[in-house]
Amino acid sequence: MDFEKKVLYLALYFILTGTVYSSSLQQIKVTGKIVDSITKKPLVNSNIIIVNQNSGTTSDEEGNYQLLLSPGKYIIKFDVMGYQSQQKIVSIFPHLKPMILNINLEPIPIKGQEISITAFADEPKITRYELPPAKMRTIANPLPDALLSLKTLPGVFSGNDQSTFY
Fold first, then answer.
1. What is the structure's pLDDT at 12?
2. How many angstroms separate the first and last alpha carbons of the chain?
3. Minimal CA–CA distance to 57: which of 37, 29, 83?
4. Domains plus CATH for the chain?
């Protein structure tokens, strides 16, 4: 029975070791930096797309990117607005060390068309009424003077010794 346990533990060891080893070979890290070919400044938020797959990544604020790829052949597209995009064919092999793929993108002018925006506004409909001072004296007003009349307007507050608010 002691022999059976040893064989069982040994078999379990080889199975687990093989699983861990094979899983470490499944994905290879592809890293690099994307820079402007003239100024050598990093290109932030560049798109790195694996063509014919729904995956990819973007570069960070220093132009660095990182992809994890399984063994196989890939077309990787490097694209950012205002620069000529590039495609690289990359072959990933099972025992490959991490791959460094630095990219220099050529700036291109952005050609746009002229856009004209036209807007029309209607004349504001304001009613104008002229009131001569002589007629103002004949209009009935329950308040004795103009200052008290102003206090009754919405949004107008007057602060004095006789005010009732705090």
1. 72
2. 94
3. 29
4. 26-105 (2.60.40.1120)
Residue 34 near residue 42, CB atoms below 8 Å: yes
CA geometry: angle at 42 spanning 71 and 38, to 5°? 110
Please tell me the pTM assigned to this model: 0.53
pLDDT of residue 39: 94
Could you list the beta-strand ranges (E) of the chain.
28-36, 47-50, 55-58, 64-69, 72-79, 86-92, 99-100, 103-105
Instruction: For residue 26, name the pLDDT band (cuts at 50, 70, 90).
Output: confident
Burial of 12 (0-12, 13-18, 19+ CB in 10 A): exposed
d(CA 58, CA 97): 22
pLDDT band at 78 (very low <50, low <70, confident <90, very high): very high
User: Binning pLDDT at 50, 70 and 90, where does residue 9 land?
Assistant: confident
Q: Which of 73, 63, 9, 5 is nearest to 31 (CA)?
A: 63
The single residue listed with the structure tokens 């950012």 is 80
Residue type, 159: G
- Identify the DSSP state of 44: T
